[in-house]
Amino acid sequence: MAVAFVLCGCTQRKEAKPKAEYRAIDTIPMLIMQVQKCSRLYTAEYNIHKIVTYDDIVRLKGSVLKRDFNVKLPLGDRKIAIPMDATLKAYIDFEGFSERNIERRGNKITVILPDPKVALTSSKVDHKNTKEYVSFTRSHFTDAEMASFEQQGRASIIASIPRLGIIETARDNAARVLIPMIKQMGYAESDITIAFRKDFTERDISVLLDNSTVER
Amino acid sequence: MKKLLNNISKARIVAVAVIAVAVLAAFFWVGHTAHNSTVSIGSDKKIDITPEQIRSIKAIGQWEFLSVTDEELVDTVRRGIFSDDHLVRIYYGTLRFGVDLGQAKPGWIVASGDSVTVTLPPISLLDHDFIDEARTKSFFESGRWSAADREALYRRAYSQMLSHGFTEANIKSAENNADAQFRNMLRAMGFENIVVRFAKQ
């Protein structure tokens, strides 16, 4: 396993909106990179869509004559809806694959696979279709606020993984990929068994999530 | 007559005293009520996330041999007359190199006794969408930026990650690892003489 860090800085100038009156330029492109060798067989891919909505309503609250009141103030609303898509992939990690994963009895072969894992391989925010409504008395949503909402949407997608059934799909598809491979090695299809370490419950799935998926 | 006048002035004094007491009582009551009253302006903030909608499920057979995890600090500056506007974001992404077994040609594994020859499809980028944009961190913002500006920053981060990660050296490294991993797996399955090669692009 080789891990290399490359750090470099360079300067580039580029216009973001050539037709506008202003000029947008890059000043600090920067790169931090990590290279890692691995052996992962991806067998299932799920594309997930989600909309994150956020309401911010200004209210006049208080109590007079021992009576509480909570009144929505006019022209004080801020709302945003952010559509986003994410790709989840389930894989079998072959990094520790060895003779211990193979059982042969005569013409029969059993391949015992390691635990399937799930990674969130990409996510994309639909900027074009993001809808924002801000009253004139309120300030617009900041970039930090929007990034925070998107991160919460991402966390929600990761939390939903146990309900999606991707692990079961990954196990089924692993057999569909590996059996034709082993057949070409000279085994009859009826003699090939693809087995997994054990059956998984929802509780187990939390430990099967890829670290890169749950990283913040 | 004098007695009558005396009675009237006594009645006035009593009335004035009653009014004074009532005014004082009202004053203290209003003061007490105002002390116990609260008025404030606050905001109700509510985030709501719709249930996950599965757009598609695909059975794939992609074997990854090298991953390049990258983070890019990308910024844009808008020059103004009195001040400049800045937007700085940190993007995260992972370029995955490997082979797509769906592209393997028929007969890509040929076995005979304890010998096997494997012809893998060429190493390629397994995901063309490799940025995890929802993980993006906002580092600094001044001025107002549109969705088009953010999309332009994303595109710039994408091309930077691609130019830094999608290199001949990384492709070669993925090939070497694929060779080693397949040899290891085939040896575990009992083959002694193993040849691993890659199909041409």
UniProtKB/TrEMBL annotation, chain B:
Keywords recorded for this protein, A-Z: Membrane, Transmembrane, Transmembrane helix
Highest taxon of source: Bacteria
InterPro entries: DUF4230 (IPR025324)
Spans through the membrane: 12-31
UniProt source species: Marseilla massiliensis
Protein name: DUF4230 domain-containing protein
Any Pfam family the entry gives: DUF4230
